[in-house]
Structure formats: structure tokens, C-alpha cells
Amino acid sequence: MWTGHAAAADKPVYAAPAAWVDVAAIPALPAGPETPATQVLLDDSQTWLERSGGTFYNRRVVRIVKTEGLSGSGSRSVSWNPTAETVTLHTLAIRRGDQVIDLLQGGKDVLVIRRETNLERAMLDGRLTANIQIKDLQVGDVIDWAYTVHRTEPLLDNRGQAFERMGWGGKIGRYRVRIEWPQDNPVIWKTTTGFPQPTQSKAGEFTRLSIDLSNAEAPKAPAGAPLRFLRVGELQASTYADWAEISRRMYPLYDKAAQLAPDSPVRAEIARIAAQTRDPKERAFAALQLVEDKTRYLALSMGDGGYRPAPADETWARRFGDCKGKTVLLLALLRGLGVEAEPAIVSTTSGDGMDERVAAAGQFNHIIVRARIDGKSYWLDGTRSGDKGGLDQLRPPSFRWALPVRAKGAGLEPIEQPPLSEAQTETKLHIDASAGLDKPAPVRVEMLMRGDAARAFSRSLETAPKADIERALKQSISKTSSWITLETVDWVKADDGELKVVMAGTSTPEWRLNDDLGVRELKLGGGEGRGTTFPRREPGPNADAPFALRYPSYARTTVEVVLPGKGEGFSVKGANGEDAATGYRVAKSAKVTDGVARFETVSRSEARELPFGQVEAANAAIRKAAYDVEIVRAPKGL
Questions:
Q1: Cα distance between residue 175 and residue 63, in whole Å
Q2: Which of 61, 286, 365, 375 sits 20 to 30 Å CA-CA off 176?
Q3: In total, how many domains does the chain have?
Q4: Same structural domain, 593 and 526
Q5: From the centroid of its chain, how far is CA 76?
Q6: Same-domain pairing of 594 and 451
Q7: Is 585:625 a contact under the CB 8 Å cutoff?
Q8: What is the pLDDT of residues 179-221, one digit of tens each?
Q9: Is 466 exposed, middle or buried (0-12, 13-18, 19+ CB in 10 A)?
Q10: What is the DSSP letter of 546?
Q11: Residue 580 sits in which domain range?
């Protein structure tokens, strides 16, 4: 978790906007054939980026048009980091005709609370929220809400960023954005598709970037597109010169925190690992497991904990740390073991298209370690748990881009993620119908998991009661196969991290008569004609963008039916062959071998995206595949 720090306040200030703010007049209600329950009359954002930090003014004026608009409009709130930001509340008023009803009243009814919204994720950020309940709100009222947030970050020389996004529905009466900065504090800015071209002008020693629109509509993002194409109607501005500046400014924080005291107990751990092996990969993996298993995750981002990592010795002593603390502890271990390593900041949610955005520290929310051994990079994340099998079993993370933290600075570097070389999940349903078509059939379900799939399931096994896990597994099967009754559930975890779940029970397969063919059939799946296709897009920005695929993915599903009479006279109906038209390489087979009817589907993704020009063919292939059936046919008379 990343936040800033500075001397600030734990209560709002109540005052008029600063002199640099241009307070707008409220426009009339926009005309239109369709009237929403609430109508935004004014959305006004003004930003002042200076050497002492950034100041952000926002005013939003909304009219309650229908009764339905009352339920979602009964309060206003603003959150801030009390050690990094100050909040000034300017206006909260109801405008009812010529009457103006002041709801702030100098803070009389303002409730300031601390809400740890990520507490269940072991993250404490200390943010405060000022909340005001709006009393006596009526249809036709206009709510006028304005405030300013001032933010500083001395650790990073008060560098900052501004961000605007056109993300509303319907029309806004007036939409205005202004960003101003002194010429000695240059700003780099960029817009994405769908955002109006701003006007840049100079006024004395200041530069202004602005747009001012009437009856503004927000662009709509293309359905199903990768993240970088979903960022439509955005404006970014930053006072960082480039990515290398962020890297340089971060370096002293991590270099100092990773230094161990002469009597540090971490040195004993280094010596212990070093005595066990001379192999650098084995040493690195042992260090990673130590950080994962011996320090729990807890993010404390209050004060200057947003950007400054806790020292490695402190994290080890208290046995917990956030991504920053775990990173410096891992760095200290690796350096002591002679393994080349450096911190690298990443985004867990917004990596796609990071290289197209302006440089700003706020783009990142996580930090990991890159170790280099024999010319190969290994990305190590101390906040994970349960990694097994060694360094070569670790796959590169899905963050897409990383910014190494170096004394001389660094640029963004891609994190390459190759396709999976083996299935991450293998599911086999084995039905023993050898006793006859009308007899109960023993059934066995096997699920083999590898990689992150096994790791995630292993965590649930360690934290949830065994009975709850068994119940959930049984229910997952019964939802789609109610004719199966599972009685036992067992699992085995291998040293290399693989996990195998085995469930056993009985079933009552439904062999139904096919009147046209005069034979009995067991339908195992498919044929409904309901495939999940790629959505059609409306005209708009990036309408021809590619479609995002699940990547990496690799799964194998097998259904086996042991047949009576060693399968004599039995046949199967099902798809055979391979198809990659959907963006996924799908191989299917259906056959009877040695008295066993076997259906297998192997699906894997080999790319992140499907080009737009291939979507029609992909949808046609998906619709066709949705009618594929898996059927076992008995011989006549049986």
C-alpha cells in the first residue's frame, strides 16, 4: 500500500477557496429527451502543482430530478491521509429556488471517522473521512459540494501528479478541468483517446492546461478490451521528469533500510542458509521462503510508512511487514548470500499500458525483488506464501511492467510471461459402469493442481476447517452433476507444490433411450448451444481494440466411463480435433479404448489478446462448439 506523508491535519478546515481558484457559475439544467433521477450541472476540477506539493479543488453540483434520486444523494464525504494531506471544506449547501441552506455550518454536523477499508487484507493506512448527512433533501433541490485537498510528499521532493477521468453517465451541464503550475516546476501531461484536446496557455510565470465543455458526454470504453484500451477520456499530468527520476528518489530509502546492524540476528539466518548450500538459486529460494514463512503480511502506511520501508532488522524483529518491509528484508538476505538483487516497483492492477502513461510514483502500489543469477532474472515477492519446488518453479508475475530502483535511475522494464508449459489444473471424472447400465456406478473425481492454482488451494486448506473444505468440494460437484453422491474427500500435497484432491462415491448414470436410433445413451455434457462469446461493441473510442484473453491458462478435463462387457458394441459421439479460432488452442478427443469411453478437452492460451479482426470467426467457432455433445451409446438391446 502506497501513501504519502507530510505535516497535515486530522480535521478539515472551513474556508473559502484559495485565490487561484476560479469559482464557476452554476449552469442551467441540460435539455434532453431522457431525464435521469439526478443531473450533474457542474463538475469542476482545478489543480495547482507547485514545488511544495499539489492542491486539488473539486466542486460538483447535482440536481435531484426524480424521487428515485433521493436515496443515493443523502450524504457527502471526502477522505484524506492526515499525515500527508489537509482538507478544506468550502461549501455544502442546498439551493432551493432563491434559498441557500448551509449544511456545513462551520463543521457543526461534520463527522470525522477513521475507516480502515482494507483491514481484512491486513492493511492499515490511517485515512480519515469527513462525512456530512444531508437533511430535508427534496426533489428539485440542487446540492452544491466543494472542497480542496492539499498534498505533499517530502520523501520524494514533493513531486506529484494530477488525474482526470470522464467517467459519468448521461450529460453534464458544464465540465471543466484546469491544471496550473509555475514555470520552474514543469509538468508533463498526456491524454488518452476520447478526452478533448486541452488548451495550454501562459499567464505570466504560470502555465495553464484547461478544457471547458457544455453538455458534456463521457466516452464509453470498448467492451472486453485489454486495460490500456479501457482508459478512455483520461488526462494525466505529472511533475516527474521521467521514470528514472522516481527510481533514483526511491533508491536511498531502500538502500538504507536493507542495511543490517553488526549484531543483527538476520546475519545468523544468512550464515545458516549459506552453510546449507553454495548454489545461488537454492540460496535465493531459501531466503524467499524464510521471508514468506517467518514474517506475516501487515501494511502500516500511516505516517511516512507510505513510501519509506521499515528497516530489515525491524521487520525481522516484529515478524511482520508490508511489501516494502518484506522486500528490504529479502534484499538484505540475498545480498548477504552473494546473490545480485534489486527492488522493483510494480502495479498489481494497472500494469497493462504502464509504458504509455506519464511517470508518477502514484502509478505503483507494490514492490518486489528482482534477483539475477547466471544472467537470468527471477522475480521474488515476499508477500506471497507457500511457494515450493525451487526458484525455477516460480513463474514471472502478471504485473507486465517493473521499475527497478537504482542509484542512477532506471526506466520501465517489461516482465515477460511465457505460456504455461503444463496444465495448471487437471480434472478427471472416472465412472465405473461395468456392472451394467441400470446399476449404481462407483465414481472417482481427481483434481490435480499446479503452480498458483495449487498454492491458492493449499492456503485455503491451511486456514479453513477440514469439514468446510470437504463440504465445499462436494457441493461444487453436485451443482453440475446431481446424479453423483460423493462420500470421501482426501488430498495430498507434494514437495514440489503440486496438490491432488481425490473424491470418491457412487453415481446413478441416466441412460436414456434415443427413439430415433433405438439405443440407450448417456449424455455427459454439451449440446446446449450456449457458448460465452466475445461481446459486440458500439461505436466509440478504441472500438477496434483487441479482446483480452485469459492468459496464461492451461487446463485439461477428462471423463472416463468403464463400460459393461469390456465395451463391446459401445460407441461415442463427441468432437475430435484441434481449433485455435477462439484465441484459445482447444483440443478435443472422444473414443472408446480397452472398454473405456474417454472424452478429453485440453484448453490453453498462447497470447494475451485476440485481434479485433478475428472476433467474428472466434464467435462463430464458439457458437459451433457450444453444440458439441459428449455421448456414450450402448449397443441395441442393452
A1: 15
A2: 365
A3: 3
A4: yes
A5: 27
A6: yes
A7: no
A8: 999 988 899 999 999 999 999 999 888 999 999 999 999 999 9
A9: exposed
A10: P
A11: 425-635
Q: Which residue is it, cell 503452480? A: 451
Nearest to 385 by CA among 522, 523, 260, 293: 293
24: cell is: 464557476
- pTM for the full model? 0.90
Return the SS3 of 151. strand
In this structure, are 294 and 233 located in the same domain? no
Say if residue 362 is in the same domain as residue 231.
Answer: no
Shared domain check, 249 and 215: no
Residue 298's identity, in one-letter code, is L
Domain co-membership, 214 together with 270: no
Give the whole-angstrom CA distance, residue 403 versus residue 409: 9
Task: Give CA–CA dist 93/99, Å, rounded.
Answer: 10
Q: In what order do the strands lie in the sheet with 484-493?
A: 484-493, 499-507, 441-449, 425-432, 554-562, 596-605, 584-593, 577-579
CATH of the domain at 104: 2.60.40.3140
Flag whether 522 is in a domain: yes
Strands 554-562 vs 425-432: parallel, antiparallel or unpaired: parallel
CA 290 to chain centre: 26
Is the domain of 575 the same as that of 451? yes
156 lies in some domain: yes
Question: For the segment 19-76, what is each residue's pLDDT rounded down to a tens digit?
Answer: 999 999 998 876 665 678 889 999 999 999 998 889 999 999 999 988 888 888 889 9
